[in-house]
Amino acid sequence: MLTYATSGFSEDILSDSFCQTWFGVGIVVGMVSIGTSNFLILLRLWVLWDRKTRLVLVTLSLFLVTQITAIVCTTYVVSSMMPLVVFEPYLHSCILTQKVNFVILWTPGIVFEFMIFVTTWWNALDQPLPQHAKMAKVMYRDGSIYFFVLFGLRLLNLILSIVSPLSLMFLGVFFIWSACNVTLTRLIINSRRAAVEAEESLFIDVYTYSPRSWPLLPRQGSCVSENYELQGKGPDIEICTRLSSSVTSVAT
């Protein structure tokens, strides 16, 4: 709809109210989409941090504060922008007739992502050998890509909103929206892949057979499947204990 309204390729004559509605909807849905992506990243990080209460509370509080601020700022920007959006018949496009203060639209997201990035790497340095090594590798690699891409694009949009002419105000908006979804999808797919690999590795460790076909004891700690962590659950120590006991009795 936004392409239809702003590309200039359509020969339809649109109303100003149509332009105002879809500009507002586009900004709101875009900010909600990015906020949802940030929360999904936060859920993955909580798993990686073994749900340490202090870290969870601090990052959750930061997320709530920045998102509430973003909602207030988005509401203000959309309400200020509405009267300034009109349809230009000569260009066959919806246009913004005057600059709006988009600086406040990008600032909360920049603050949140920077603080999460610092917290993640501070925790990584504090615990350089996390228990869930495969997931940690995925999160630190793809999470860093996610951070640098989104942080860079937010910064670009922030700079454009300050120094650019009116015609370039929306230059980076759709880049950050699409890049957010692409990088988040990459992270989730890779974390799922790490989960499958961890589950297969656990299966091989537990059901290893000797030449006499007697099951051997699993390696110490191998029963704590990383897949539990990737699915948002804690390691099932009771199941591990029963499994080790049953394998011991069979081997005996």
UniProtKB/TrEMBL annotation:
Residue ranges of the TM segments: 20-43, 55-82, 102-124, 145-163, 169-189
Keywords linked to the UniProt accession: Membrane, Transmembrane, Transmembrane helix
Lineage top rank: taxon: Eukaryota
Entry protein name: Uncharacterized protein
Organism lineage: Eukaryota, Fungi, Dikarya, Basidiomycota, Agaricomycotina
